[in-house]
Task: inverse folding
């Protein structure tokens, strides 16, 4: 390869090419104005990915700025690779959730696998050893011809990557809805722990300091992946398969160990992974944050393929690569560590005082442009938006003609795709490696993972109820945060902070932009009221195919802390004769409920409102009871209402419930999805103490029954056996996945 | 008891093994890097779980040819106890310390769950603290745990007391399922002829403290400490 051969592959830079690269006419003109000349082909590629929606957050930034991001616990909020939160004793928890939606639809195994790989790198880049992975998945209708293939590939991809790197995948959520038929959502979250005085940031410093490339070699995979993720899908999206990267979890595992080993030395000035837009975004962001220039000479960069051009190298999204700024003279120390782990290591450039990004290769300069003006000129739009019209609540006429037995209704609900057991999925994930997992999927409202070598534990949850968000984005945003906060409280953890993964349709449509604006407003209100700030996040827009958008899905990843993993409460009933209590007020809100959709066949009404003050009061109360050792089992009352919550606790423990608290009540009481509620099982001798504390705290608590037998039963006899519920609950997904296509 | 844990690129359960051994024996085991050619003088060698070399060829096949494995084999021949767990079972089997082979799980899917096992032979330092026929629960977490050997060898293994653990179903309330991977004759773990080497797919090191939900793995490490101290 030579300069001449490179030039032969380049295309003339015109408005046409800029459009092909995803830039609008105004954006292209802006680039011409900043440079005062026509960009080179390489520069055009670099500018287009820097200004893509995916990298620039151009549609969302103006709204994201309104979110609360600070608090006494926050060490580092949004803007770095991941958020950092203090958990005491000189320890920090570092976490983020990120989407890999577009690639996962096109190539589910590699799309999901590299999603996990990318989010792991965001976390260990900052000096944290990853201790847990989570994921939030949304698939299309089970009847859609692609759904089975996508579920199978995504789950295998997440497992294939996470299992190999040896980070336990401890929980998540999975929904099915026809709105995701053309755009599935794969949101992956990693949580790591580090020492507060050993956290690594990305801002470059020190003119002349060496710029080092480590990890896998660079190939031609993923070129313009960030551009793909910034546009709607059409019929020909399948042709974008070459823009999906391929993951190598073995190399990632070595990279984790090598980077953490290097971080124990004093060699590092700054470090960042090469994620979306690869070497472009890592070099530009690192130099930009440090207010410096950077000069790279790409000839010595480890390459997997022959005859690569500077354009291809700068835009490649090959996986498992990091960029490090070293202190001068520390190259040998660093190289020895990467040699030990058999990873590529190359000094590819140095920092300069010019403020320019300079790319050299084959003896010529292919890019020489100022970083700050280009970064700062990344577009920022205040796109037109329409508020979502309020839905009116459903009245009692929806129950006309409903006469099914409670046992039959429960059996149907437990076998419906959203409530059916996801065991088929989570058993493909190694949830135990590390030996610190206290609770994983299905055992508690939040995963609980002990901090390695200590007694304290981190609790983790992912939450969002997209059907609520569609009906009312503001209320849905509030609910997603409140539910995350509630799930952490339900295990006994003190909620600390969240990461938000905003998945929406095309922001150029005012209706969709309105959903985004509403959700951000709701999230912000809830974060403020619950002292639960946003410390990291990711936005995925253009989740539309042929004009059909997904449900607005602001997925919330919440993290909390507890002093001792062993005080955590799980959902399973553990003893016969425990008293079952409802905490919180039940009004019977049936709009947008699972019952309404699955049993009455109607997706309508307003979602249940969240009273954030009540939420906080009830959650603090439940957490307090758990810390005092008064709670045997604890579960938040969410999808399906109180009766479904109790049945889930019964199934998890294999112990039934004798219910007296519902006598004479309307079905709304059983299935309503009012917020801020929990179901607890407590020993009989603890009931009086709990009721006394409830009275003092002003929290409504009522007795629903007691744990007993092998069925849900009441004064009228058995309602439904656990065996029947279990068959419905455990049967659906394996049967669906093994059915003929 | 002095123990060494062999670490390959891609091993990922060495920390679990360290924690279990340290908790029971009170001594930190040595970690030996795969490129080392010498082992310290130890009473027990553990080959831990993970994905050595990514398992990109055949699980355990690359690691079995690593320089350190020649040393492990030599020590095993001298009677040093060797415990191979999960990927470690695959590696020591590929290295010829145990008969048979481990193939992809029958349903081609990775499986992680708590699994019921029956202790088949207690005449070894690994299993002496269990009762014959005792049902224990260890987690499994593997994609290639489908043990295979021919019918004649299964018969011989049974006859010589070389089957250590079998997968069993259980009438326990929460998870009654048996064989998770299609292994021949439900074999979960086997000894060599002298019962100085044990390979098994399940993870006793992830069932040693209350946090794990059960401590059925602890007697294995207690037995080793008792026999080798």
Result:
């Amino acid at each position: 390869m030579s300069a001449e051969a490179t030039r032969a592959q380049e295309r003339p830079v015109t408005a046409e090419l800029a459009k092909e690269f995803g830039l609008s006419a105004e954006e292209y003109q802006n680039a011409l104005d900043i440079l005062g000349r026509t960009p080179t082909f390489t520069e055009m590629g670099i500018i287009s990915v820097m200004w893509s929606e995916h990298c620039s957050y151009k549609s969302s930034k103006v709204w994201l700025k309104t979110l609360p991001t600070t608090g006494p616990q926050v060490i580092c909020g949004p803007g770095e690779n991941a958020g950092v939160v203090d958990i005491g004793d000189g320890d920090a928890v570092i976490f983020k959730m990120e989407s890999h939606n577009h690639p996962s639809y096109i190539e589910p195994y590699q799309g999901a696998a590299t999603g996990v790989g990318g989010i792991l790198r965001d976390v260990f880049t900052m000096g944290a050893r990853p201790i847990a992975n989570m994921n939030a998945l949304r698939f299309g209708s089970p009847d859609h011809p692609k759904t089975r293939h996508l579920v199978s590939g995504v789950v295998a991809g997440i497992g294939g990557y996470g299992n190999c790197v040896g980070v336990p995948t401890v929980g998540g959520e999975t929904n099915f809805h026809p709105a995701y038929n053309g755009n599935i959502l794969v949101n992956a979250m990693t949580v790591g722990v580090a020492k507060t005085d050993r956290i690594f940031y990305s801002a470059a410093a020190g003119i002349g300091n060496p710029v080092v490339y480590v990890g896998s070699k660079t190939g031609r995979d993923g070129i313009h992946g960030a551009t793909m993720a910034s546009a709607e899908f059409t019929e020909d999206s399948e042709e974008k398969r070459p823009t999906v990267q391929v993951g190598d979890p073995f190399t990632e595992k070595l990279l984790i160990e090598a980077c953490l080993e290097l971080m124990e030395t004093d060699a590092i000035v700054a470090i960042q992974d090469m994620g979306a837009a690869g070497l472009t975004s890592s070099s530009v962001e690192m130099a930009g944050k440090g207010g410096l220039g950077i000069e790279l000479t790409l000839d010595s960069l480890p390459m997997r393929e022959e005859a690569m051009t500077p354009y291809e190298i700068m835009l490649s999204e090959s996986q498992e690569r990091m960029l490090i700024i070293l202190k001068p003279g520390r190259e040998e120390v660093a190289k020895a560590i990467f040699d030990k782990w058999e990873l590529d290591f190359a000094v590819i450039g140095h920092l300069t005082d010019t403020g320019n990004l300079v790319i050299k290769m084959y003896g010529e300069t292919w890019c020489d442009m100022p970083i700050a003006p280009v970064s700062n000129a990344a577009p920022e739009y205040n796109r037109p938006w329409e508020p979502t019209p309020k839905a009116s609540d459903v009245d009692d006429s929806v129950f006309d003609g409903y006469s099914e037995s409670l046992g039959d209704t429960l059996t149907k609900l437990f076998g419906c795709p959203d409530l059916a057991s996801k065991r088929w999925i989570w058993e493909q994930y190694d949830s135990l490696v590390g030996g610190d997992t206290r609770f994983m999927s299905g055992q508690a409202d939040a995963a609980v993972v002990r901090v390695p070598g200590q007694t304290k534990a981190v609790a983790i949850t992912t939450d969002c109820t997209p059907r609520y968000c569609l009906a009312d984005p503001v209320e849905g945003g509030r609910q997603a945060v409140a539910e995350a906060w509630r799930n952490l409280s339900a295990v006994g953890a003190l909620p600390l902070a969240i990461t938000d993964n905003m998945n929406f349709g095309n922001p150029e449509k005012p209706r969709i932009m309105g959903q985004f604006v509403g959700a951000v407003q709701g999230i912000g209100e809830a974060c403020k009221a619950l002292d639960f700030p946003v410390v990291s996040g990711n936005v995925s827009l253009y989740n539309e195919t042929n004009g059909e958008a997904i449900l607005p899905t602001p997925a919330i990843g919440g993290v909390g802390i507890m002093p001792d993993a062993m005080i955590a409460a799980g959902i399973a009933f553990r003893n016969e004769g425990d008293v079952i209590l409802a905490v919180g007020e039940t009004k019977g809100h049936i709009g947008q409920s699972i019952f309404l959709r699955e049993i009455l066949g109607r997706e309508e009404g307003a979602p249940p409102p969240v009273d954030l003050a009540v939420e906080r009061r009830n959650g603090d109360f439940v957490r307090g009871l758990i810390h005092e050792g008064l709670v045997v089992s604890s579960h938040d009352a969410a999808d399906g209402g109180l009766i479904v919550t109790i049945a889930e606790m019964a199934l998890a423990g294999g112990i039934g419930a004798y219910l007296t608290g519902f006598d004479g009540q309307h079905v709304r009481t059983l299935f309503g999805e009012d917020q801020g509620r929990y179901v607890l099982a407590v020993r009989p001798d603890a009931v009086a103490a709990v009721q006394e504390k409830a009275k003092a705290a002003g929290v409504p608590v009522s007795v629903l029954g007691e744990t007993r037998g092998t069925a849900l039963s009441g004064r009228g006899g058995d309602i439904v056996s656990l065996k029947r519920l279990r068959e419905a609950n455990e049967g659906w997904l394996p049967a669906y996945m093994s059915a003929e296509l | 008891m002095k123990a060494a844990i062999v670490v390959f690129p891609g091993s990922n359960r060495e920390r679990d093994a360290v924690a279990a051994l340290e908790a029971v024996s009170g001594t930190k085991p040595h970690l030996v890097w795969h490129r080392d050619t010498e082992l310290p003088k130890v009473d027990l060698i553990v080959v831990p779980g993970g994905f050595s070399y990514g398992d990109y060829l055949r699980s355990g096949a690359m690691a079995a040819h690593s320089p350190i494995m020649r040393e492990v084999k030599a020590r095993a021949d001298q009677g040093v106890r060797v415990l191979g767990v999960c990927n470690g079972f695959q590696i020591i089997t590929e290295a010829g310390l145990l008969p048979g082979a481990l193939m992809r799980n029958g349903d081609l899917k990775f499986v992680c769950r708590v699994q019921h096992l029956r202790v088949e032979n207690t005449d070894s330092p690994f299993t002496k603290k269990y009762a014959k026929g005792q049902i224990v629960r260890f987690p499994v977490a593997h994609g290639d745990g489908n043990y295979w050997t021919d019918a004649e060898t299964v018969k011989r293994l049974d006859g010589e007391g070389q089957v250590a653990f079998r997968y069993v179903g259980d009438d326990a309330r929460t998870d009654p399922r048996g064989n998770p991977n299609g292994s021949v004759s439900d074999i979960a773990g086997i000894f060599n002829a002298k019962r100085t080497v044990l390979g098994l797919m399940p993870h006793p090191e992830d069932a040693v403290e209350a946090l794990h939900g059960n401590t059925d793995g602890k007697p294995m490490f207690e037995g080793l400490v008792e026999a080798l101290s």
Notes: Chain B touches chain A at residues 9-10, 12-13, 15-16, 19-20, 49-51, 53-56, 109-113, 139, 141, 143, 173-174, 203, 205-206, 208, 210-212 (CB under 8 Å). Chain B has a mean pLDDT of 94.
